[in-house]
Each structure stands twice: as C-alpha cells, then as structure tokens.
Amino acid sequence: MSGLDEFGEIARLFRPLTGGAAGAFELKDDAAVIPQRPGFDLVVTKDAIVEGVHFPLGEAPDMVARKLARVNLSDLAAKGAEPAGCLLAVAWPRSYQLRDRERFAQGLAADLEAFGMPLLGGDTVSTPGPFTVSLTAFGWVPEGRMVRRSGARPGDLVLVSGTIGDATLGLAAVKGEIEDPDGSLAYRYRLPEPRLDLRAALRRAATAAADVSDGLIADVRHIAEASGVAVTLDLERLPLSGAAATWLEGQPDTAAALLRLASGGDDYEVVCTVPPGVRKPPGFTVVGKISEGEGVEVRAVGRTLEPGAGGWRHA
Asked: What is the side-by-side order of every strand in the sheet holding 295-300?
C-alpha cells in the first residue's frame, strides 16, 4: 500500500505536474477548464498502455510513464498539433508501493515538463490485474488545419519520417531474441521520440498523416481506407538505422525481413502523403505512392508480398 489515500496521493504525486496551469485548479476540483484560443481548434487524442501488452512485465515505473506521455504526444504530432494539456488515469497494481508510484510520477513529470503538456486532472484506482495507464492529450492546431487521415489523393507520394523497424527489433532485444550491443534498439522501443518537430512541415505539405504505432503497413492502410484510395509501398526504400541495416544483412530472406520491420509497430514516426509537386519535407523518405482504387500493395525484392494485417490489431 502507498500509505496515502487517493487525495493525499494526488496532492503529493500529481499536483506538481500541473505546472501551475490555471484550468487545472491545483487538481482540487472534479473537472478542469481549457480556456478558448481564438483562431485554433482543440485536438483530442487518447491512448492506453497495459503491462505485458504494450510494455514488458516489471518495466521501471518511470519508463512506463514516459512512454505513455510520448505515445500520446506522437498522435498530436501527426495531426500537426501543439500540446496543451492532458488527463491521466492510472490503475495501480496491488504490488505497487509508494516508491513505485513516486517513480512513475517523476518520470511523467520529466516528460510533461519537457514537452510543455501540463496535467489538468484524472483519476487513480487500484486493480488486481496488470498495471494499466491511460492519457488523454489535448493540443492546439490553427483552425481547420488539423492533418487528417482522409486527405490522400491519387498521385500523392507516401513519405515516412526517421527510421522504421527499430522498435520491433528493440522488443526482440528486450526478450533476448537478438543482439543489441549498444542498447539503441531497446531504447527506441522503450522510449520513442514524438515527432513534434514535424508539425509545421505537416501542416504546410501533407494531405494526410498518421503516426506509425500499429506498423507502417497497417497505418498506411488506415490512411488509404479513410481516403478511399489505393497505395503501393516499396519496402526496399524503407529508411533504416545502422542497427536495423546490420540485422537485415544477416537475414536469409530479405523480403520477409523487410516485411517484419514494416509491420512491427511502436516506431512512433509519422507517415504522410504529399502531392507530387510539393517539395519533400526534410527528414522524410519516399516509400510509396497513392493511386485510384483500394487496398495496399506491398513490394520488395522484385515481387509482391502478402502483408497480412501489416501490423498490430487489437482483439
């Protein structure tokens, strides 16, 4: 047990995370107020993560908190939004002592401060089940400028930021299935970097966008379905880190290995579409093209592959 009741826990662990935000009322009320911002739309997103599903059993509480913040910030980034605040829900396992809860709050505080997203409220409960945490994140975007999934048009190019596949290899490294000498792959899995630096470029150039959470193929499919178009992906164009490229060189079936990297998820990069006449934003790689029709065609090593789900699917 923590030694604190719910209100004492909120006051001690989470009130400092408000950053003095006026609408949070020091977490002393049952609700928060988000002041209006003329000329902007309020974007809302929500993600939950569960022990043993989205992070390893026994993961350090501060790392859980930071991943929670970052996966939600990734959604805001893909919409071209600026963080405004968040609501937190925590279901503590009965095994969590006060020191574990404090460590969680410290990790969350570090990232909320770093990314400018104050805590506005939430709830804490106990559970006999796995550690489960959820965040609802709010962000501002210029009115009418949120980058949706549904804007892709035939002829658009498909671009992805950063590198793809590190997180799925990182999970394999955490499980001891592959070597990770410098720990870079495990780090990418445990602590993704939300691409908030891409917001202006997305608002300027992208016709559609999504963050790469379920897997590149799956998230491109989400865009294609929302936009009513078809997409062709060339996996030989995948941007890879040095560690992922080294792993790929040792695989007997290059096409199958590329498919694994493009389906693994948890990269939290941004996949977007841009018209062919628009200059490619810095930091992006062209990996495919939009056409009329429906469905996703995946190609590698001179042949068409069967991608299956192409990523994570929730039961």
From this structure: 208-211, 270-274, 157-161, 284-291, 230-234, 295-300, 303-305
On the question of pLDDT at 246 being above 60, the answer is yes
Tell me whether strands 157-161 and 208-211 are parallel, antiparallel or unpaired: unpaired
- Whether 234 maps to a domain, the answer reads yes
Structure tokens at 228: 């009513």
Is residue 64 over pLDDT 50? yes
DSSP label at 272?
A: E
Which pLDDT value is given to residue 315? 46
Terminus-to-terminus CA distance in the chain, angstroms? 32
Cβ atoms of residues 79 and 145 within 8 Å: no
Q: If 0-12 CB within 10 Å is exposed, 13-18 middle and 19+ buried, where does residue 270 land?
A: buried
Q: Which pLDDT band holds residue 123 (cuts at 50, 70, 90)?
A: very high
Residue 277's contacts (CB-CB under 8 Å, 6 or more residues apart) are none
CB 267 within 8 A of CB 192: yes
- Which residue segment(s) compose the domain that 271 sits in? 157-303
CATH value at residue 264: 3.90.650.10
Contacts of 217 by beta carbon, 8 Å cutoff, 6+ apart? 233, 259, 262, 263, 296, 298, 307, 310, 311
